[in-house]
Amino acid sequence: MWFDSHCHLNLPGFGAAPEEVWSEAQNGGVSRVFVPGVDPSEWGEATWATQPGMSTGVGLHPFTLERWAQDDELSRVDVALTQLERAARSRQHVAIGECGWDKPLALRCPRLSLDYQTSIVTSHLQLAAELDLPIVLHVVHAHGLALETLKRFRLRRGGIVHCFSGHAELVATYCRLGFSLGYGTQLVRPNADKARAALRTTPLERIVLETDAPWHVTRGRLPNSPLAVIDVAHIVSRALGLPLEVLAELTFANASGVLSEPLGSTVSR
Question: Where along the chain do its domains lie?
């Protein structure tokens, strides 16, 4: 069985309701999925999120900040961070995130400088440390800043750098800080050599698989869906020389170890 460690199952773009998409994925061999939170509208109760095998996160994505900046609504951030803390303390979510740094965003939207993005991520990190939750990070062309910031926090449960895009030389530092690295559709992009080099450098116990669906595509399956994690698995299996059944067991255990239900959770999934 497979674990899609990063899938925006609640967003439009699948062509069907989340329950239907998830049912199809389960029938195809995907038994668990993590749905990151990116916007306050996603943090409340959602009947689809109580489906067996689903777990969720709570976070402010850089692209949510971009939308608010475009609408001149960045004043919403302080309120949203208060809502985020309340949602995280409810113990209905297994992780903080998705949040993070995006350098191209900072370049096209000066109001969202990397310093500003760091202030938002720092609020997430403080909450993750206090509540003993893992954090799920989006890091694009800002790995030096991300590592510098992460070193200031003691996160016992670490987290995941989703859709890892950094050089192989960065892998060891992230792993020392307790982070697993998410591999998915970046393995089929034009710069896949860099991603595959990082993959081959990543300790087996730190590899998790993801789709980031409905974004991106993989070879052979359009649109993207949780089922595409099996396409990703075939690529990883060939790159590492691991049998699929071994990879399935390994990555399922890795993702489960990070994205497990928090102590005191009352949510049954």
Answer: 2-8+19-39+52-258
Helix (H) or strand (E) holding 129: helix 114-131
SS3 at position 42: helix
3-state secondary structure of 93: coil
User: Is 0.90 surpassed by the pTM of this model?
Assistant: yes
Percent of the chain with pLDDT over 90: 80
Other beta carbons less than 10 A from residue 129's beta carbon: 17
Average pLDDT of 212-232?
A: 79
Nearest-angstrom CA–CA distance, 88 and 82? 10
Question: Helix, strand, or coil here: 231?
Answer: helix
pLDDT band for 223, please (50, 70, 90 cuts). Answer: low
The answer to whether the beta carbons of residues 184 and 6 sit under 8 Å apart is: yes
Please state whether the peptide bond connecting residue 104 to the residue before it is cis, i.e. omega within 30 degrees of 0. no
- Write the pLDDT tens digit of every residue in 192-211: 899 999 999 999 999 999 99
**Candidates 3.40.720.10, 3.40.50.720, 3.90.230.10, 3.20.20.140; CATH matching 2-8+19-39+52-258:** 3.20.20.140
Closest CA relative to residue 262, chosen from 136, 95, 127: 95
C-alpha Rg value of the chain to the nearest Å: 17
Query: How many other C-beta atoms lie within 10 A of the C-beta of residue 148?
Result: 11
